[in-house]
């Protein structure tokens, strides 16, 4: 489905991450992969992680919400790889205290941090890619969101606010970039045991509720989410833009 396409995956961390599941599916469907990761000291770990993906390249990006950092990074990526066909934005962060305490106690700094890293970074990435003429015709941009953007989930707190901002950004970006034939969508995964999920209190109880209440009575895997992302990155989804695509075993349709 992605034969001959170059896909940039931003925010890969480990083999349990959603980003890794997307990378694996995209690679097995013919994509050439480019990765970004945080921390120069993680270089050897990322190289080990991505060696499965033959001929892939990795670049450090310590702050995807910093205009200059992203511009310099994308200039380098384009000069070394040419234009690309898709971007997967798998970047989000909130301070631990802002997840563990009641939402009402969110600090101004914590609020700004969560929205900057988790939502503004996607706007920035999209803008810089367009300004540098980095995207091929019919390119597809995909970001990751979660059900907590529209419903109150204990322990999700300010990240829910950030994801709500991200989803609104997807719609506005889709309108802006649609005139250039570029599609923008968000993939809302069901809960998965990732490193990020460990920051949410009582996360295991969420997994249990999904198994009990979702129409399919099962949780999702990074492989399943990867396949949905591959579809969104491919020409098979070229009539879809500005959407929040749920891949959560149907849990989001349930009223109770």
Explain what this protein looks like in three dimensions.
With 256 residues, the chain is of the alpha/beta class. It has a single domain (6-246), classed as NAD(P)-binding Rossmann-like Domain (Rossmann fold). It contains 8 helices and 7 strands; from the N terminus they run βαβαβαβααβαβααβ. The chain has helices spanning 18-28, 43-50, 67-81, 96-100, 108-131, 158-178, 203-213, 222-233, and strands spanning 6-10, 32-37, 57-60, 84-89, 135-145, 183-189, 244-247. It has a 7-stranded parallel sheet, with helices on both faces. Helix 1 (18-28) crosses helix 8 (222-233) and helix 3 packs parallel to helix 5. The chain is globular and about 50 Å long. The mean pLDDT is 95.
Brief digest:
This protein has 256 residues and is an alpha/beta fold.
Search tags:
256 residues, alpha/beta, Rossmann fold, 7-stranded parallel sheet
């Amino acid at each position: 489905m992605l034969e001959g396409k170059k896909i940039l995956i931003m925010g890969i961390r480990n083999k349990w991450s959603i980003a890794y599941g997307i990378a694996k599916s995209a690679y097995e469907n013919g994509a050439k992969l480019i990765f970004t990761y945080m921390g120069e000291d993680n270089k050897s770990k990322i190289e080990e992680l991505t060696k499965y993906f033959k001929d892939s390249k990795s670049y450090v990006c310590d702050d995807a919400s910093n205009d200059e950092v992203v511009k310099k990074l994308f200039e380098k990526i384009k000069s070394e790889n040419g234009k690309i066909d898709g971007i997967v934005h798998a970047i989000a962060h909130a301070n631990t205290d802002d997840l563990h305490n009641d939402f009402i106690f969110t600090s101004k700094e914590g609020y700004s941090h969560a929205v900057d890293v988790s939502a503004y970074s996607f706007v920035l990435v999209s803008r810089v890619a367009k300004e540098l003429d980095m995207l091929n015709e019919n390119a597809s941009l995909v970001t990751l969101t979660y059900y907590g953007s529209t419903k109150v989930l204990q322990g999700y707190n300010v990240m829910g606010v950030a994801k709500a901002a991200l989803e609104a950004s997807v719609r506005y970006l889709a309108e802006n970039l649609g005139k250039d034939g570029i599609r923008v969508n968000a993939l809302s995964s069901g809960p998965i045991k990732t490193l990020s999920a460990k920051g949410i209190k009582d996360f295991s109880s969420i997994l249990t509720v999904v198994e009990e209440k979702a129409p399919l009575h099962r949780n999702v895997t990074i492989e399943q989410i990867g396949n949905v992302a591959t579809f969104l990155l491919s020409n098979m989804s070229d009539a879809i833009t500005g959407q929040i695509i749920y891949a959560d075993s149907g849990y989001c349709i349930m009223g109770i």
